[in-house]
Amino acid sequence: MNPTSLLQGRRVLITGGARGLGHAFAEAAARAGARVVIADILVERVQQSAAELAAQGLDVSGLPLDLADPVSIERCVATAVERLGGLDGLVNNASITNSGGKSCEELEIEMFDRVLQVNVRGTWLMTRACLPALRQSGRGAVVNLASDTPLWGAPNLLAYTASKGAVIAMTRSLARELGSDGITVNAIAPGLVEVEATQYVPAARHQLYREQRALQRGQVADDVSGAVLFALSDLSRFITGQTLPVNGGFVMP
């Protein structure tokens, strides 16, 4: 199958599309033939991101989204479905970390709750809001961005690691529930990707990751895009409930 037609005619909503992984996923999906809406709480950045891709002749537009606000989620999904004329794929990419570097004793209760509210509840509510359109599609695919942190137990990252472990568990549960509707639900678990959102991670930690991977180099956003395209496409139509680590061999579960 020609990669440029892998998602031909598909209608895809990607959260967290203002920068980093979400921007890379949007570009890859659009180049594979999809019509894409990206959504983010960074309203100006998401519009700029969409405009940059549209200027390259790609069918990408942007919408505001606050995953902590159920009303914002419903409004975003309704607008995206109307704009695209339906929905074939959802990529739950948006998440927050915010607790990096703090031990379990130092981590504030409010921050723990905030991370789970966005990363776990937000993923559930986005998926729920998209279900009517995904069912109508007849070939719906949900791709949840997890992380390899719950696969090895990242220290001083308790809230984020717990939230991504929950995303992996939800992926399996949703796959069981939605299989009868012909909807696949899979998770992608990247390692430490070198993007703007991980600039807070000390350089020594980035170097440690590079050295301990089987593929000893830094991981960039485009390293993850192929797995997302695969999970959205017909190539994975009989794969569901799975978590695919994409980390250069740092963790091999």
From TrEMBL:
Report which superkingdom the organism of origin falls in: Bacteria
Where does the Ketoreductase domain start and stop, copy by copy?
10-191
The answer to whether keyword Nucleotide-binding applies is no
Q: PROSITE patterns, per this entry?
A: ADH_SHORT
Sorted keywords for this record are: NAD, Oxidoreductase
Q: Which InterPro entries match?
A: KR_dom, NAD(P)-bd_dom_sf, Sc_DH/Rdtase_CS, SDR_fam
Against Gene3D superfamilies, the record matches this protein to: NAD(P)-binding Rossmann-like Domain (3.40.50.720)
Q: Tell me if Phosphoprotein is a UniProt keyword of this record.
A: no
GO molecular-function annotation terms? oxidoreductase activity
Its family remark reads:
Belongs to the short-chain dehydrogenases/reductases (SDR) family.
Name of this protein: Putative oxidoreductase
Which species expresses this protein natively? Metapseudomonas resinovorans NBRC 106553
